[in-house]
Amino acid sequence: MSLTLTHYLILSVILFVIGMIGVIRRKNLLMLFFATEIMLNAANVALVALSSYIGDLTGQLFALFIMAIAASEVAVGLGLLILVYKKQGTLDLDNLTLLKG
Amino acid sequence: MAPINPVNIDFSSLNLVTLAPMLVTLIGALVILIIDLIKKDLDKSLYVTLTILTLFIAVGAVLSLNLNERGLFDTILIDGVAILGQLIILIGSMLFIPLALTKKRFHEFSYPEFFALFLFMIFGFQFMVSSDNLILIFIGLETASLALYPLIAMHNTRASIEAAIKYFTMGAMAAGFFAMGAAVIYGVTGSVELAVVADVLKSRMSEAGILIPVVGGALLLLVAIGFKVSLIPFHMWTPDVYEGSPAPLAGYMSIIPKIAMMVVAVRFFNIYLDLDIVSVKNLIIILAIVTATLANMMALVQGDVKRMLAYSSISHAGFIMVALALDSLKGYSSIFLYYGLFLFTNLGAFAMLWVSRRKAKLFHDRFHHPYEKFAGMIHKAPIAAVIMAIFMLSLAGVPPFSLFWGKLYVLSAIVDKGYYLVALIMALNSAIAVYYYLKLIVYMFLKPADKDKEEVTIYANRALSLEVVIGFAAFVTITSIFYIEPLMKFITDLVKSSGLV
Amino acid sequence: MEAIAFYVFAVLITALFLVTVFSKNALYAMSSLAAGMVLISGIFFVLGADFLGAVQLVVYSGAVMALYAFGMMFFDATKDVKEKNPSAKTIFLLSGASAVILVVIFSAPQIGRNIKALVTGTPGADNPHVIGEVLFTKYLIPFEVAAVMLLVAMIAGIILAGKKMDVSLSESEDDLVDEASELKEQK
Amino acid sequence: MEKLLYIALFAPLVSSLFAAIFAQRKKMQLVGIVASLLIIISFLASSALLSHLLSGGAVVTANLMDWIVVGDMDVKFGFMVDQVTAVMMVVVTLVSAVVHVYSNYYMEHDEGFNRFFSYLSAFVFSMLVLVMSDNFLGLFIGWEGVGVCSWLLVGFWYYKPDQPREVNPSISPSWAANEAFIMNRIADLGLLVGIFILYWNLGTLTYSEVFANLDKLSGGLMVAAAIALFIGAMGKSAQFPLHTWLADAMEGPTPVSALIHAATMVTAGVYLVIRANPLYSQVPDVGYFIAVLGTFVAIFAASMALVNRDLKRIIAYSTLSQLGYMFAAAGLGAYWVALFHLAAHAFFKALLFLGAGNVMHAMDDELDIFKMGGLKKVMAKTYLYMGVASLALAGIWPFAGFYSKDTILEVAFNEHTYGIWFVLWLTAGLTAFYSFRQVFLVFEGDERYKKYGFHPHEAPNWVFIALLPLLVLAIVFGWWKEEFMEFVTLILPPYEMSEETHHVAWILILLTSAIAIGGIVLAYIKYANGLKRDPKIENSFIYKLLQNQYYIPVFYDKAIVKPYAELSDIAWKEIDLEMIDATVDGIAKAIEVTGDKSREIQNGNLSTYLRWMVAGFIIITILAVVSVVIK
Amino acid sequence: MSNILTVLIFFPLVAGLFGFLVSQKSIRVYGIAVAAAEFLLSLWLWFSFDMKNAGMQFVEKINIIPEFGISYYLGVDGISLFLVVMTTFMTLIGIIGLSIKKDIKNMIITLLFLEVAMVGVFVALDVILFYIFWEFSLVPMLYIIGAWGGEKRLYAAIKFFIYTFAGSLVMLVGILYLAHLYQSTTGEWSFALTDWYKLQMDLDVQKWLFWAFFLGFAIKVPMFPFHTWLPYAHGQAPTVGSVILAAVLLKMGTYGFVRFSLPLFPDASVSAILPIAILAIIMIIYTAMVAFAQKDIKQVIAYSSISHMGVIVLGTFAMNVEGIAGSIFLMLSHGIVSGALFLLVGVIYDRKHTKLMDEFGGLAKVMPTYATIFGIMTMASVGLPLTIGFIGEYLSLAGFYKVSPIMTILAGTSIILGAVYMLAVLKKTFFGPITKEENKSLKDLNAKELTALVPLVAIVVWLGVYPKPVLAPIDTSTKALVELMHQKAQTKEAKATILVSKTKEAK
Predict the structure, then answer these.
(1) What is the reported pTM?
(2) Class (C level, CATH) for A5-96
(3) Cα angle at C124 between C121 and C129, to 5 degrees?
(4) B398: chain E residues, CB-CB within 8 Å
(5) Same domain for E361 and E457?
(6) Which of D219, A19, A11 is nearest to C18 (CA)?
(7) Which one of A9, C65, D240, E316 counts the least CB within 10 Å of its CB?
(8) Do A40 and B169 touch (CB under 8 A)?
(9) Residue D568 and residue E385: Cβ atoms within 8 Å?
(10) Nearest to B298 among D599, D606, D627 (CB)
């Protein structure tokens, strides 16, 4: 049984779904952000695998930029989290329900 | 190890001029940052004017661009749609930024960085609309979004921080979908450049089962696009974020990020529509109908004007989305016409709310702009009431105000393509919508103010620059009949040159 | 060989990320996330994307995890988090359905086949070389924009976490703010 | 001649407008005088026109101006005075003139004196338009105009309150006025439909053109047109079942009853049938139906008059009954006879009413004849006038009624419609009986009025002089039967009795006279010596039935008026508010509820939002798949 | 003055804007002066109108959006001429009769703006322009009802606005489709009505479009069962609002039928006769009954308006000159009469602040002039010959008789039922004894009210006796209209039903 592209892609899907589960399950914002990282990484796996199988570099570059995006998101996200924590004293998103309806 | 060949690139082939508008905004942002570094405690009016000047130059740069040029290794694409997108973005931003000069002081405007971030955000949007490369689009999108989140949070109220968090989190998830979608597209075509994608797809359409990944990629991307242009059910951040943001920013968000994403959507879905992939087309139409209708109904029951306007802008987005699915010149043109007109009217309406903003919430525990606040406005501030009413009527699509023309063109485009039922539903949606717009008019004109609040002035935040913006917006809204013809011609020519149809 | 590496990595990554997603302890979650990220770079190496593997290691295990760790110290997240997680049924349903859809999409045989490679760089050059080549030609502009993005993120992070956000101008009346700043100056 | 025509037509209008100027002022004698003079002028002009025609002059026509000119419809204010019109004009203006003069007396203490003359003159104008028009739509103007004037005049004392039917069978003047107007409107619809039929099939509404082209009408259409027009006539002439308004209309001032509800307006229906004789001659079946209905009404109304105690209502029923005679004649094709009876009836019935007016005036508007009696002592002249009129009505030789009524009976016999003849003959007896029952109860017998504290007085002499023309005509008009026939048959179809009828004519006359005299004698026996009430008879079913007008008004009330009101209420409350409007509001409500429900998903919790995003992805996938599958 | 129509439209607009400068105290006189000037302008239009010419006159055409075929295109013919004159006249009368004290300045300016929209609707020949005025007319009316109305004024105002707005949006889709059709047939965009008249359409298309337009117009008319907004609007509106609403705004709907539905879709119109006639008959009978059940005088008149509008609709769909011309005339007469009746109701409402009939009785004694004018208007309302009300009603019914005698008889019950409810009003309000002490001191009409009412009485009588000056141009243009329809008709049935001149053949 040789390894095919599909294997990698399925791995990517699995990781993506795991990330998604984290995003929709987590109530702690910090840990929710972990899950978003997983989702982006899943995409990276797919892109790199595709890139490698096609022999085209675009996928790898895409993944590279996604990493940059992920890093930036972390910075901004953490800034927001610190702000929330300072103001509310908690990171639980169940406490963020002022705006609704 | 293989030797690295020197890369020789003809400088003129880069076509650097295509980058000019973006460079202008970038330089503007950097200048602001540098000025801040050199001297603190400069007044915000300086930054406002600097920003406007930057944008002004950027508009000039956009207008001097040549049509249908690519630059910088084909990552930049300046076609008609890109120019239209950039113009709307820049003009909208120019209209927005004077709103910082309010009577009251609000937190965000005390940062010079606010203006820098604002320009960075525009920079991001500019790349989104001026590229057909998914990577650049994605980076532009994230640059803009990551600048936008702090802009919201910097208002520094509980609501604004909550709004920023919600927007950010959902945005992160949408980014994940975007990346996955792009991966699928890349997997099927080997490219992330939409022009190439279109060509490859065309040649592969005959393969059996090709539709599964092709449509699947579109679905994943649609989540990200739907999130940004707030299509139901990806809209849920919209009302909360608008409510949490200061009014002008909410108004701004109802247009500029949406038009940027709309341009991407036009570029992307155009491939599908050209290939005659019915499921995507139907999907867009269904989503548009649901968005327009359901958002309308939810707007109906709101107690806060800003929240109502948030839902109404969702509904408007749904309305325009139909035009996207038509794949006709008129359809695409009317998207830009509609947004161009919507820009003034909606931003005007939000600016009216902004003028009435005060720090304490006198009228409601939670809302800054509950309907009750505007009761008896015709007596307190008659001209303002009339202008607000005009904005509302325009949003409702009552002729002869500007959005009527937008509505007319969109509906006409729908009818031209034979979607009579869709046109009918969309038209009737306006009838639902008119109720909540009227509600505000009713409060302003027909209901007396609360006894104990009769003396409370509505316009706590009034300032000249706000009045100028509102006046200009009102002027544009009222006199639409005189410029629709050249405007539409301008738009149509540009759209036509983009080769979408 | 490649297959074994793949399966080992895949199983480990999946397991680690599951821990990240389900663990009640933020520290565990973060640690497993970091470990998973490191292992993903292994996948990249397996796929021959050496450069990316390296970047992955640097960016995630280095930068991202450092940031998170820093943040966690701030939040005092050593103790278990209490979450009122929504019913497992909904999550299972949503994620299950999404998984099925995504698997169908990604396992389509057309993906990755019959595709002409468009961006290859100098043939025969090793991975970091070609990446560099393409990055600084074709993807020069995205690269620059990404730089701006990082700048934006930096500014945003600084502002949002900054002290100036502690007192909100938007919520206190102007005259009070003025008084406060006057007092400050006098001191 | 045209000038005369216009003078005759417009003098009453001028009179009306003149009076209208002062309508809200206090009584001005001048108004009464001017109005009366103008009506007399109109009468003189009419007479001049009549004499013009009598002397063999041509039919006078005049076109005032265009009225409705649309499409192919070209209706002018066109007038025409031919023999029939001239007779009608003279009758109308004569009676009107008398009534106007009389009203100066009758209304002398009424605060609405000026207003009254305005209305009354307006009526005369409308009536003249009705008879003088040369087309159906012009006739319709007058037709509606007299209806309105009748409405105004019946409701003249509008301020009187409503009373239960048991106290006042007419409820109130305003009620009676409305009833009259609405019932007439029902019939007017018929007339209008008749006009439509004629217009669409003949393209014109002018009499001469319509009648010249009648052969273009198919048989069915002709019947339809005849019936439709007759329905119009039924309303105006109060034929069964649209008769109830006439008795109730007695709520108006007595001169009004005399002029409108006896002499002129109610005969408009007969006039219409006479005018449309070319049409009715072509459809004998319809004619026969008219005759039968007329005959029925004759006896039906007479029967109600037998037991009534109301001075004016008795006369009103007799009017109804006599109108039945006229229709019987017209229906049988004897148009000139109908016209003859119409004219004769106008004179003696107006006289009778005006006499009754004197009595009422004397009795402070008391109408119950049981409360009168023995008035001949104070009101001898009135007794004489009313007596003559009653004799004429009863058809006693040599009074006018004798000639006209007898001729009708002859016609009925001549047509071999013996049933009709018999009923009419019987009615003649009843007529004589109730007329004289009334006369005797009022003027003869014990002076019951004293018991009720009345102080009757006779009217001034000039009133009787004013009534003299009517008195004279009630006596002598019948003598001109032959001349009349010759004159009007210039345009009306001649009606010749068969030989056979000629032979038995004298028997018929005898029979009729006998039953009439019998009636009078019976009345004399029963009532001349005072009122003897027999509770057994009065409580009998038939008596009650007759007294309550066969319970028809009650029936209308219960079967039409009340259900209509109830149905209207249901239509408003149950259908309009509860169903139609509720549906509209329900749609709005449903939209709002949907909005309210769907915003519940917007619960503010980020987790929910994120889950919806995932769900959204699933949903759009399903939608995409479905839209492919469906296709 | 060939651009008189532009002047007619924009003079009130300019005057309204200048009105803001006039002080509250003097605004009334200003309003009357402006409205009078406008009325005189419309009279000028009438007098310089060529009665012989059946086509459009005073045509102005300026392209606004040539690419999309939208133009500023105005013109009048005999059909619209008098609607314009009536609009300016009733606005004048309404302003003269104004009895409002609160915010009178806003009221007068609003009325002037409303006049702009109303005149615009009747003279616009470009469909988009028509639609603009059509929609815009809602706004001032919303304000009038909402600001000066009764207790439930907000509900009434919003209901009025949304209901009519919804209907016209459906029409808008129809308009756009028609434009598309025109474009695909001729290759050019045009919204000019006169261009559209030339368009031949398939039967199916016609039917869909017909019903789309129908909905827009029917709600405005308002036809059963879309009528429920009207009683609320009338019930809550101030007097002048009701006057304008009944006199002019409702006519827009029936005008739409004549101007759009019939000539654009002759075949569909013919095939729709039956359902529309049934609706119209229900309207006539049913609303007459509902009117009878009302306790509030104004509601009676409101429902009676619906009933009369039923006759107008019926006449319109008679498809012959008599019927259509009659219905147009009836539009005018109903405008005058119902306007006058609403003014009259306003008179007692001003005095007693109630419109319930039970509160009155015997008013004829204390307010004789008032009672007289009310009586005259009642008679006009029930269609007495020689009043303005008769001619239109008669012609409409006569016209429809050609289509269906039975239905005409059913519809003809309007003359009976109309009398029933109107006379009931008279009886309850004016007749009988005065039961309420406070009514004994009610004042009769004052000079202001007389100034508003007497001209109406004069017109009622004048046009009842001599309608020719009005009827002749209507006739001319209607003939042309019917001719056009006849020419355009494709089906045999339609050809047979649309009668240019039937009786001439009979002769």
Answers:
(1) 0.92
(2) mainly alpha
(3) 55
(4) 135-136, 138-139, 165
(5) yes
(6) A19
(7) D240
(8) no
(9) no
(10) D599
SS3 A96: coil
Is E423 at the interface with chain D, CB within 8 A?
Answer: yes
Q: Establish if B2 belongs to a structural domain.
A: no
Domain range holding B492?
A: 14-497
Joined tokens for residue B256: 């500029």
- The average pLDDT across A77-92 equals 85
How far apart CA D416 and CA A46 sit, in angstroms, is 114
Question: Does residue E374 surpass a pLDDT of 60?
Answer: yes
Q: How does residue D630 score in pLDDT terms, banded at 50, 70 and 90?
A: low
Find chains touching chain B: ≥3 CB pairs under 8 Å: A, C, D, E
In chain E, how many domains are there? 2
Please name the member of A27, A99, A100 whose beta carbon is closest to the beta carbon of D607. A27
Asked if B7 and C136 come within 8 Å (Cβ–Cβ), the reply is: yes
Q: Which residue of C has its CA nearest to B140?
A: C145
**Which pLDDT score is estimated for E306?**
92
Q: CA-CA distance, D507 to D500, in Å (whole number)?
A: 12
Structural domain boundaries, residue E198: 1-236
Domain assignment present for C59: no
**E48-87 as b/e: b if 16+ CB within 10 A:** ebeeeebebbbbbeeebbeebbbbbbbbbbbbbbbbbbbb
**Distance between B173 CA and the closest CA of chain D, angstroms:** 8
Contact with chain B for residue A41, Cβ under 8 A:
no
User: Is residue E247 situated within a structural domain?
Assistant: no
Boundary (domain end) residue, out of E185, E213, E236: E236
From the list B136, B140, B212, the residue facing C105 with the nearest CB is B212
| Residue with tokens 């890109």, as numbered in its chain | B82
Residue D81's φ and ψ, nearest 5 degrees, are: -115, 100
Closest residue in chain D to residue C104, using alpha carbons only: D621
Q: Does C94 contact B at CB distance below 8 Å?
A: no
**Is residue B5 scored above 80 in pLDDT?**
no
Q: Is the pLDDT of residue C89 over 50?
A: yes
B213 pLDDT exceeds 60?
A: yes
Are the beta carbons of A2 and C3 closer than 8 angstroms?
yes
Summarize pLDDT for B319-346 with one digit per residue, the tens. Answer: 999 998 888 888 999 999 999 999 999 9
Are E232 and E276 in a shared domain?
no
Regarding whether E295 and E194 lie in a shared domain, the answer is no
pLDDT for residue C63: 77
Sequence-separated (6 or more) residues with CB below 8 Å from residue E487: none
- Give the pLDDT of residue D319: 92
Q: Are residues E222 and E304 in the same domain?
A: no
Which 8-state DSSP code applies to residue B471?
H
Is D587 within 8 Å of chain B by CB?
no
* pLDDT band at residue E406 using 50, 70 and 90 as cut-offs: very high
Are A86 and C165 inside 8 Å of each other by CB? yes
Judged by CB atoms closer than 8 Å, whether chains meet at C125 and B4 is answered as yes
CA distance D172 to chain E (A): 8
In chain C, how many domains are there? 1
Give the percent of chain B with pLDDT over 70: 98
Specify whether E185 is located in the same domain as E320: no
Which residue from D minimizes the CA distance to B164? D606
Sequence-separated (6 or more) residues with CB below 8 Å from residue D371: D363, D448, D449, D451, D452, D454
Kind plus residue range of the DSSP H or E element containing E65: strand E57-65
Residue B82 lies in a domain: yes
Interface test with C, best of D618, D619, D625, D626 (most C CBs within 10 A): D618
How far away is chain D from the Cα of A77, in angstroms, using its nearest Cα?
15
Of B33, B127, B156, Cβ closest to residue C165: B156
The total number of structural domains in chain B stands at: 1
Q: Does A41 touch chain C (CB under 8 A)?
A: yes
Query: Percentage of chain C with pLDDT > 70?
Result: 92
